[in-house]
Amino acid sequence: MQNYIHTIQGNYLGFISGNNLFSRDGEYLGWLEGQIVWDKKGNYRGNLQNLSGHYYILRPTFSINPIPRVPHVYPVSPIAPTPAPNVLPIMVPLGYEDGFKERS
Questions:
Q1: Does residue 101 surpass a pLDDT of 70?
Q2: In DSSP terms, which residues pair with 69 in a beta bridge?
Q3: 59: domain range?
Q4: Residue 3, pLDDT above cutoff 70
Q5: N or C, which end of the chain has less CB nearby within 10 Å?
């Protein structure tokens, strides 16, 4: 499975290769267990969701996060694909936030 991931602002965050999440530059960011996304330190980041044909990592804001997991061994980074174009920002479903918030 290889999917492009965007932030809710529409910016290209990175891609999924196998069950691993990488930045646009091929840096390891975390892994997936089904639709659940964990960062490289083992912290819950949200759920992979397809909205309007694009993939996002959204975290529920009104629930308790799962207990952190033991971090995985960092996989060998694949060759990063050509970055996906940015997309239009989305309206976040009520009760969710971006799992990988951009810093201002």
A1: yes
A2: none
A3: 2-98
A4: yes
A5: C
